[in-house]
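Chapter summary example.
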Amino acid sequence: MKRSPRKLVIFTDGGARGNPGPAGIGVTISDEDGAVLTEFGEAIGEATNNVAEYTAVVRALEAAVGYNVDTIEFFLDSELVVKQLNGEYKVKNAGLKGLHAAARERLDKYARVRISHVPRAKNKVADRLANEAMDRAANGDEEPLDDGILPGQGSLF
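The structure predicted for these 157 residues follows.
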């Protein structure tokens, strides 16, 4: 019988080709032993790199809801988003405030949260998933999410 994970380890990435430009996100969610539970990439339409990074975090947290854990670890290669989510930097950009609030609201449901910066080289899978999503959208193989609107959440701006 497979046991439930005690904690989730999540790598996210978001990127835009142009800034702003066609954007995508990549998410990988594993258990504490490194077994991949889910991974996905999605095109999100026209966005900035920072909007894509935040959207990846929010979408990862939406995907994490189904796992009954109280501990979550995030790894991102965006130092800005890490520092904003950890409260080290204020969110001054109006376009990021709604996404930041959405992420914090979801993070606050966990007893223990760690959000860490990793070099891009340590975030290869999430980066690949984001780029593949952007490629699919560019080729017409994937319809992007509406600019900054997450499924079932309405506008976050």
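To summarize the output: Helices lie at 49-64, 79-85, 94-107, 124-138.
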